[in-house]
Specification:
6-stranded mixed sheet, 2 helices
């Protein structure tokens, strides 16, 4: 674990049930275990649904996990999500720190879309 992350607490809250299933819970448990494996303490805050459109087309529709960061030098909140690159295939993972310009899950997704478009070309 990088020195700047050592001693941080990652807060995790996971919901599961008959109506929403347990996939979210399993992903959160895997995230928590990975954090612990690298010497951190794990805790989760909430999940928010985000649907982002561009010129009338949906460019992302999913859930953003909101994490409380304790002891981070520049942020108290982080936003994280993933999606399948292809059905049954690899996943792409995102983590974005809260800043004055990125102060919500929606803005975190938008910032990632803009960063990807600068890296790989427009949508």
């Amino acid at each position: 674990m990088p020195d700047e992350l050592r001693g941080l607490v990652l807060v995790i809250r996971a919901d599961a049930g008959m109506s929403i299933g347990s996939g979210h819970l399993m992903r959160c448990l895997a995230l928590a275990q990975g954090w612990k494996d690298h010497g951190g303490k794990a805790v989760f805050q909430r999940v928010e649904p985000v649907k982002e459109t561009f010129q009338g087309a949906t460019v992302w529709d999913g859930q953003v996990h909101v994490f409380e960061l304790r002891g981070h030098p520049s942020a108290q909140t982080a936003y994280a999500w993933s999606f399948e690159l292809e059905p049954g295939g690899k996943r792409k993972f995102y983590a974005v720190l809260h800043t004055p310009a990125v102060d919500s899950p929606v803005k975190a997704v938008r910032a990632a879309i803009v960063a990807d478009s600068k890296k790989h070309g427009p949508i």
